[in-house]
Amino acid sequence: MQRHGNCLVEAGFDVVLVGRVLPNSVPLKPMSFDQFRFKCWFNKGKLFYIEFQIRLFFFLISKPADCYVAIDHDTLLPNFIVAKMKGVKLVHDAHEYFVEVPELHHRNISRFLWDSIGNACIEQCDLVYTVADDLALELSNRYQAVFKTISNVPPLLSNNQKQNIQHNPPILLYQGALNQGRGLEQLVLAVHQLPVLLWIVGEGDLSQELRNLVAQEGLQEKVKFWGFIEPSGLKAITEQATIAYNLLEPNGLSYQFSLANKFFDYMHAGIPQLCANFIAYQKINEVYPVALLLDCNTDSIVTAVEQLLSNKNLYETLKENCLKASKVFNLQVESTKLVSYYQQLCN
Question: Helices 261-268 and 312-326: crossing angle, nearest 10°?
Fold first, then answer.
């Protein structure tokens, strides 16, 4: 959201980014756009969602705007109501296949409610977009609206070369949320069989469980938890990795249609990665082989890491392809599309 906000400000738009603050949230840093966060009484569960919808509605109704942008289903209804009441434009930015996330698989009532909101609102939006072409097609068919694609990618820097930071043992890196379905337990167990250090950057629902697993397996000397790192400091850590990790379990269509931010972050850092064998990654990897695509299990992880560590030619080829691909998949390209969509919408 920071990247998109900055791009729109540079194009002459006034932007306000609205979110919420959690007990462990870091203070906001000054940005080129305005920022506002709610401090909610409830931080999870149904009461949180009800509270957030109400707070967001009253915030939006009090703020004049030419366009309201709803990020995912859980901000869609208040934005939809206020945009209709004021007769202004409405945009839906789908970061994921919301109603197919694993957290909703066995919660049929919640899933039905979110899907009903999508069916009621998305078709009436003035602009809808998501992160990958195949997900855009899937969402277009589901919600009878033509989704465009804006991938969430880093900017291409003039010195777009991976720094020569050599670690011995090599660094195997995961960055992102520590949540179910991301193969993190399998990753930790794989470290038993590998001559690497594992760096885990991020926090999430599995934060304590993973730390307990590391202690239980006696891997404290081989696994480092960095905790939450702000985006401004993440790049320096990422560039030190030898191999990066981006696996997912095939738990529903949301994961299978995903195209994670970290995939492009690793690419721009010039780091070969282990990646989920899903459709968006397959299509990019066919043109620019930057990853080994594999299933999410410990044996596959061990085999793939050993292959990258032992086959120097393969490793260097993937690394070179990362730098080639970064010249195609970057913020300069995507921001041109983003700004064009909003200029057409608001003119």
Answer: 110
Given its phi and psi angles, is residue 147 left (phi above 0), alpha (psi -120 to 50 degrees) or beta? beta
The structure's pTM equals 0.90
For the chain, which domains are there?
2-153+330-346 (3.40.50.2000), 171-326 (3.40.50.2000)
Cross-strand bridge partners of residue 128? 92
Residue 27 pLDDT exceeds 90:
no
Among 227, 221, 296, 289, residue whose Cα is nearest residue 255:
296
Using the predicted structure, report yes or no on whether residue 334 has a pLDDT greater than 60. yes
Structure tokens at 112: 């039905």
> Considering the chain, what percentage of its residues have pLDDT values greater than 70?
97
Handedness of CA 61, 63, 66, 67 (dihedral sign): negative
Q: Which of 254, 249, 329, 250 is nearest to 285 (CA)?
A: 329
In angstroms, the CA 88 to CA 76 distance is 15
Q: Provide the pLDDT for residue 166.
A: 67
pLDDT surpassing 90 at residue 22 = no
Return the ∠ at Cα 138 (arms to 256 and 268), rounded to 5°.
55
